[in-house]
């Protein structure tokens, strides 16, 4: 997912106020990216949110290409099983990373000269807990997901544990790069990951490896971790620490982190348990049809997520503008998402047909429902991020528990009746049930935050 070249141009995209200081003899790529940066909003809140959203779109586009190749080079059953295994890995990584990604976004901006220590501590804790969670999952696979029994093979099991721990760090590095205001590097990092995945996938197909999908994902993960953390720890963090006030202290907010983590477990469960629920209820082939629609539809969810990350970063230094920023994100992202939803709803059959006629026939209605769900999800996501910035953690936790219970509860009832379309109905209905009261009583959460020093 991430590229490492043309760093000066990437920084120009993130920090427009310094673009005029670049020397006259700039590389052509830098000139092109500088011109592109001028097309983005000048305000850091929207600019960084746009860059993060572009990262998600680039990643999704190349990721869709990855799955396009996978569906043509591998059997549907292998695609379904591989996607379910990767979904399990993502769930375990998010359990193990303790939601320290959002913690870094919230507190790295004010951690000053303790930034490196904070990031490395989070890396160590996250990787360790992810590995422990994965070992426990493998022990319970026969009861939780019997279709993934092949992961209990000793060699495959070791790979699965290591890859999941690595993915936990992978998630954190995005949060760290966002927190030090280097969203352009997140775009580059995503490009490296996605492109290496495709190259390794082709190699696995040429060698007729049944594990080619999983192996390509793990190999690309290693490359991305090396590239991104070299840039983060050797370039971005030293500059961030140098510019920070000498009096800055590391945050001591264990209670905040614990509550944020607890709530995030339910939100991530809603995202990542669904593929396993589809697999266990409808089988591997239907899981493959679901997975492609979900990958495409989830991109719209990420737009709200990325704009929210930018909102939290800006709220740390300017809490008095939280209400203004929250409203701007709602309006601006609402317009972007409406256009994106319209495109996907209209073009869903053609988009899925790229992966095969069966994917279009089985997944079109699901994809349309998921796309429509992104609009109420914007309200839900902004509300959670505003409340997180204000440290109203009880509401943060409560909203995410409600989302998880509604989505998975409805899906469990609807999947046997409606097939994979039931998952889309569950998402749309659950998001609307939460978004409508949040809009009606928005004055109870979209209110000014008190200024804090951490």
UniProtKB/TrEMBL annotation:
Q: Where is this region: Disordered?
A: 1-21
Q: Where are the transmembrane segments?
A: 51-74, 80-100, 120-144, 156-172, 184-208, 214-233, 253-277, 289-313, 334-355, 367-387, 399-418, 424-441
Sections of the chain in a coiled coil: none
Primary place of residence?
Answer: membrane
- Judging by the UniProt lineage, the source's domain of life is Bacteria
Protein localization: Cell membrane
Per UniProt, which keywords does this protein have? Cell membrane, Membrane, Transmembrane, Transmembrane helix
Lipid bilayer topology: Multi-pass membrane protein
Name of the featured protein? Lipopolysaccharide biosynthesis protein
